[in-house]
Amino acid sequence: MSIVYLDGTFLPIDEARISPMDRGFLFGDGIYEVIPSYGGRLVGFEPHMRRMGEGLAAIEIKLDTTLEDWRSIVEELIQRNGSGNLGIYIHVSRGADSRRHHAYPVGITPTVFAFAFEIPAAPRADKSAAPTYSVVTTEDLRWRRCNIKSTALLGNVMHFQQGYTGGHTETLLYNQQGELTEASACNVFVVKDGVVRTPPLDHQKLPGITRLMLLEILRRDGSIPVEETVISLEDLRAADEVWLTSSTKEIAPVVEIDGQAVGDGQVGNVWLAAQTLYSAHKFDF
Ligand code: PLP
After folding, report:
1. Does 275 share its domain with 248?
2. Is the domain of 112 the same as that of 149?
3. Both 82 and 207 in a single domain?
C-alpha cells in the first residue's frame, strides 16, 4: 500500500512531498473523497466524482481533470497497490501560496493527492457476521456547510472522539431542535414498524453516496418503504433498528445508543433485507 499519486506522478509514499505553505495544510482548504474497491471493482465511482466536482465548485477550486482522467488515476492506483479490498482516498487542495492569507489566491495550482488503503472485505448480509455499533448522542456543534466534503474535519474528529474515549464506535449528532443530522463519519437511518427513514439532505449533513445508493436500491426494489423525513431524538429512542451508512461500512447496524439497547438489541431483519439488496446492486452505480 505504498504507491501514491501526487500531482501527475505515481511514486512511493516516502518520496511524496507537499509544501508546508499548501492551503490544505494551513486552512483545511480542500475537498476529498473515499471510494471503496473490491478486487478491482469500484463502488459508486461516478456519484463519488460528481460529489467531488460539486464540492470543488462550491469552494471555487478549478480543475481540468475529467471523469475519465480520474478513472485512469484511480485504476492505476488500484493496480499498483495489489487490487485487494481498498479504499481510494482522493484529496484536492487549493494549492500552495507564497504567503498565508485568507483570500483565495489567484493563479496557484491545486494539489492533487490520492492513495489506497486496505479496508475489510465487503460486508456480508449475514446477521451473525455483521460488525455492530454502540454509539452515543451529542449536539451537533459543527459548521453550517456540512454538505461540503471539506478536508477541514476537526468538528467531525472532535465528535468522533467524544464517543471513542468511552469505548464507542460512533457518535450520533442532533441539532438544536433535537433532530438527528448524521454521525461524525456516517449517515443515519432508523427503522420503525418496517418503514426505513433517514433525515432529508440539507446543509447539516453530507450527501452520502451510500445513503444515495441505498435509497435508490430500496426504491427500485419496492419491498421496503422508505422516507426522507425529520427524525427526532424521541423517534431514535423508539426505533426498532438504527443503521449507519458509509462507503466502507455499507449498512452498519447500531445495537446500543447511550447505553440503551436498540429494539431487542440484536441485528434486525430489515437490516438483513436491506444489506442483501445493497450487496446485490452496489456495483450498478
Ligand atoms: N457523513 C459524514 C460526516 C462522513 O464523513 C461520511 C463519510 O465519510 C458519510 C456521512 C458517509 O458518506 P459516504 O456514504 O459517501 O461514504
Report:
1. yes
2. no
3. no
Residue 83: is its pLDDT beyond 90?
A: no
Q: What spacing in Å lies between the alpha carbon of 246 and ligand 1's midpoint?
A: 5
Give the global pTM.
0.97
115-159 residue pLDDT tens: 999 999 999 999 999 999 999 999 999 999 999 999 999 999 999
Q: Which is nearest to 137 in space by CA: 257, 265, 230, 263?
A: 257
CA-nearest residue, atom 7 of ligand 1: 185
Ligand 1 binding pocket includes 186 (Cβ within 6 Å):
yes
- Ligand 1 close to Cβ of residue 119 (< 6 A): no
Residue 149 designated active-site? yes
Give whole-number Cα distances, 87 to 65, 171, 222, 266, 283, in Å: 20, 22, 30, 29, 15
CATH number at residue 51: 3.30.470.10
Tell me the CA distances in angstroms from 165 to 64, 158, 182, 194, 244, one per residue in order.
42, 11, 19, 34, 19
Whether residue 184 contacts residue 160, with contact meaning beta carbons closer than 8 Å, is answered with yes
Q: Is 212 in the pocket of ligand 1 (CB under 6 A)?
A: no
Residues 166-199 have pLDDT tens digits of: 999 999 999 999 999 999 999 999 999 999 999 9
Percentage of the chain beyond pLDDT 90 is 99
Which of 157, 186, 205, 249 for a ligand 1 pocket mutation test, highest count of atoms within 8 Å of Cβ? 186
Give the pLDDT confidence of 205-233 residue by residue, as tens digits: 999 999 999 999 999 999 999 999 999 99
Query: Are residues 189 and 258 located together in one domain of the fold?
Result: yes
Query: 194 is in which domain, residue-wise?
Result: 127-284
181 lines ligand 1 (CB under 6 A): no
Instruction: Compute, in angstroms, the gap from residue 220 CA to the centroid of ligand 1.
Output: 23
